[in-house]
Amino acid sequence: MNIAPSKSAVSKIPFDQARVDRLMEEAGIDVLLATSKHNTQYLLGGYKFIFFAAMDAIGHSRYLPIVIYEKGGPDHAAYIGNRMEGGEHQNNPFWTPTLHAACWGTLDAANLAVEHLQKIGKAGARIGIEPGFLPSDAYTLIRKALPEARLIDATDMLERMRAIKTDAELEKLRTASELITDSMLATIQWAREGTTKAEMIEQLRREETNRGIHFEYCLLTLGSSHNRAASPQAWKKGEVLSIDSGGNYHGYIGDLCRMGILGEPDAELEDLLAEVETVQQAAFSKVKAGTLGGDMISHAEGVLKKSKVAAYTDFFAHGMGLITHEAPFLMTNHPVTYEGTYAAKPLEKNMVLSVETTMLHPTRGFIKLEDTLAVTESGYVMFGDRGRGWNRGGIS
Description:
This protein is of the alpha+beta class. It is built from ten helices and 17 strands. It has helices at about 15-25, 35-45, 85-90, 105-120, 135-145, 155-165, 165-190, 195-210, 265-285, 295-305, and strands spanning about 1-5, 30-35, 55-60, 60, 65-70, 75-80, 100-105, 125-130, 150-155, 215-220, 240-250, 250-260, 315-320, 350-360, 365-375, 380-385, 390. Strands 1-7-6-5-2-8-9 form a seven-stranded mixed β-sheet. β6 (about 75-80), α3 and β7 form a beta-alpha-beta unit. It holds the Pfam family Creatinase_N. It comes from Mesorhizobium opportunistum. This is Xaa-Pro peptidase family protein.
């Protein structure tokens, strides 16, 4: 299905056009060529094709959605997708004036992108691309077909675009966090002596799916072990359980960690979780619009450094939204390999943070809390703010 462009075909643009245009101008980009699932989803107002939601490969190639957006020229925007997406457009029309629902692989998608850029007079423009999400065959085709164009890495610009969430995005992130928290607490209550890690992970998948969440992963430990992979290891009385799950609601990520105990926690366990909570609260106390991201990090790290558990405990914070690690990037290579480019920048209203403190205790096991916060003018709002103590297993 091909739909020719016309100004009358432009429907409501689903993002802040003025902000995106400003970011493109600052990055020296004339036209965007977005090819990642998360950025095409953002630019299309939340749409992601269900057929390729969990895979990309088909035949000898792969799915390559492309959104083309010209700075200041929404009437020249285009979406290039799979042939089956024509049906999606019939039911819920895409906002872009031009639609090419015609592709089965990377090269036909890249060819259509080149043709569109030539048609709108941008064959020699500064084109923003996503190097990490543009296959080499598609990149080579575009480079050869548009020799006068300057291909610019638009990754940072697109990350900045997504950093400030809309109210609708915040609601999706809140829903994801709430439903994942409910699912983890229900799984802890369901599990009992003899239940294996693999069985718990499967139960969590069912809990999340039944609540309308797309299950992504579960990292789970039992007892003194620090191994979070699925296994036949069974829960024993008196042992701790850590359950860390990521899932998404309409593409937006929930990522939290809660603790369980089979029986009653002893005084040492209460004390250890309190140490983790103290570091979490130290970080929370510095979260508000205008605070430098690095100041929040250094304050929490300073509190942790004075803790008696510092030798085997780590603090980490990162941005999240459509993906689990996105702007604001607050720490460098810790543990994910990217630069903490936002450490010297102020936090802004409607940024979303994941804050986590992880203890690898030598005898009591893996003890962790991970929470999700939305930055406000005066502080923060926490999503999924419950079950942050010791949750008892085997009671359902």
